[in-house]
Design a protein that fits this description.
Largest sheet: 12 strands, antiparallel
Strand content: 35-45%
Order of helices and strands: HHEEEEEEEEEEEEEEEE
Structural class: mainly beta
Number of strands: 16
Distance between the termini: 102 Å
Radius of gyration: 24 Å
């Protein structure tokens, strides 16, 4: 004969089993959200890998951004308040990073899009600072910014997805191919049908998830004040030539 105590005990064990089942079924999606959503940093060089061609560590850019994983776990929606700046103009950017899983491995793909500008702000610099061939004139009133990459097969800048290598579960740094640049180009049209010049370009890029609780992964570019630019806002590498340069927001005469 089943007593009241036996009935309560059976219900307790059933509830325990259901709770245990619920907790074991949830973590995969929740862990994916925790692992990929949050604060990230792009670490890249506009001229290549550190140590190649005499590049100094001060040539690395550290760009912080936030990312949110989509419900299906396939896309990170990314935003940087300031992806780069020129002569007091800050350029925010919004873009996507694709996510793929293969068993316990994950890879990320930086999505370059020729259909939609990557920045809500139009480029404010004079044509002489970015136009190909050193032109001082660019037809059209608008200067839209796109993130593109050079396609070796077609010999032109295109929208494409640049994939990292496969990383084991728990890894939070993803390295993009060293020979594949991220080019921020200037166009006068939407979509990008007229490419008129480069605003900036980054190579040897890697993206890493930041652990702000420990702040051990956060990099700040301590050498930013040492960077040199010419009067058109173009960054100078190596020892600047003679003439006026801009360093740390001030003008200097290089002798």
């Amino acid at each position: 004969m089943i007593t009241i105590i036996d009935s309560l005990r059976a219900r307790f064990f059933m509830l325990t089993a259901l709770v245990g089942f619920g907790f074991s079924a949830l973590p995969s999606s929740m862990q994916a959200q925790d692992a990929l959503s949050g604060d990230w940093q792009l670490i890249a060089s506009p001229v290549g890998v550190e140590g190649e061609g005499g590049i100094m560590s001060s040539s690395w850019d550290y760009i912080n951004f936030k990312a949110t994983l989509s419900a299906d776990g396939k896309t990170l929606t990314c935003h940087a308040d300031q992806f780069f700046s020129r002569n007091g103009h800050a350029y925010p950017m919004d873009w996507l990073i694709a996510v793929e899983h293969n068993g316990s491995k994950t890879r990320l793909g930086w999505v370059c899009n020729a259909e939609q500008p990557v920045s809500s702000a139009e480029f404010q610099e004079p044509a002489s600072a970015y136009a190909m061939g050193g032109s001082n004139q660019v037809e059209g009133e608008h200067r839209y910014l796109y993130m593109m990459s050079y396609n070796i097969e077609t010999n032109k800048e295109e929208g494409m997805t640049i994939w990292s290598g496969w990383m084991d579960e728990g890894q939070t740094t993803f390295t993009l191919p060293q020979n594949q640049q991220l080019d921020c180009i200037v166009s006068t049209t939407i979509p990008c049908t007229k490419f008129v010049g480069y605003a900036d370009s980054w190579a040897s890029a890697r993206i890493t998830k930041l652990d702000l609780s420990g702040i051990s992964e956060l990099h700040q570019d301590a050498n930013a004040a040492e960077r040199c630019y010419d009067l058109q806002g173009r960054r100078l590498y190596g020892k600047p030539q003679r003439g006026l340069i801009i360093k740390g927001g001030r003008k200097y005469l290089q002798k």
